[in-house]
Amino acid sequence: xxxxxxxxxxxxxxxxxxxxxxxxxxxxxxxxxxxxxxxxxxxxxxxxxxxxxxxxxxxxxxxxxxxxxxxxxxxxxxxxxxxxxxxxxxxxxxxxxxxxxxxxxxxxxxxxxxxxxxxxxxxxxxxxxxxxxxxxxxxxxxxxxxxxxxxxxxxxxxxxxxxxxxxxxxxxxxxxxxxxxxxxxxxxxxxxxxxxxxxxxxxxxxxxxxxxxxxxxxxxxxxxxxxxxxxxxxxxxxxxxxxxxxxxxxxxxxxxxxxxxxxxxxxxxxxxxxxxxxxxxxxxxxxxxxxxxxxxxxxxxxx
Length: 303
Hints:
Blueprint: E1 3-9, E2 23-28, E3 31-35, H1 41-47, E4 55-59, H2 71-80, E5 87-91, H3 94-105, E6 114-118, E7 125-129, E8 133-139, E9 147-153, E10 159-160, H4 162-168, H5 175-179, E11 184-185, E12 191-192, E13 198-199, E14 206-210, E15 228-232, H6 240-245, H7 251-261, E16 265-269, H8 279-286, E17 292-294, E18 300-302
Parallel strand pairs: 3-4, 4-5, 5-6, 14-15, 15-16, 16-17
Antiparallel strand pairs: 1-2, 1-18, 2-3, 7-8, 8-9, 9-14, 10-13, 11-12
């Protein structure tokens, strides 16, 4: 089953050097989820061949412009191209007022239902769940209310061992029950344990998105053991004082976080405009976590 993350924007504050403000797309088995929506996100979706109407859920971490100023345009474009399916938005409470005001003064009435789900920055909370995935928000430490998001794949059913099932002659109608943990009882009364008729399902995968934050111990339990961690790395560590003043993290610290939580892989992003060349950020993070990669637009990362 596919579980991957596309980088649509990786810049902090402003678009610069061909880099766009923050936005990411998750593809879990062809179900698409958008995380943050900085300026230019819908242009990036077009560029990378993503149909916006396939997105059913959008998660906004906080209300600094580089994380949501592309949202009104995206919602409006969905309206203009005839979207009918409902859209779910998970974001700080004030964003609902911002959207309502925009549409009030443009006299826009959406053709589709827009469902707003207010997040909070005081504790971890499950904000979305379906048969394939659970999404949690958790508080980060930024200048304004800000949350990270964790995407946990649910355990998949085992697959049928076709060779064993075929040898026994089990009818196809029985296979769904076997996958769900029911033993097969043959007409002669022989019991075949379901474990002997299936292949174990792979371990569930997880992705954590740490938006703008100063490094603290408070959010680390919420991202422990993730397969893929995205963590902001706005500055090099020689700018640590600046990072603290602006409630951001350095590349060195992002690597430390990944090490401390036992992540398997780390992607860093949210680069300051002072860095045209991103290689020093990568090299610095690798000194504390070897499995670091740069968030660069158009790259898909497998979870």
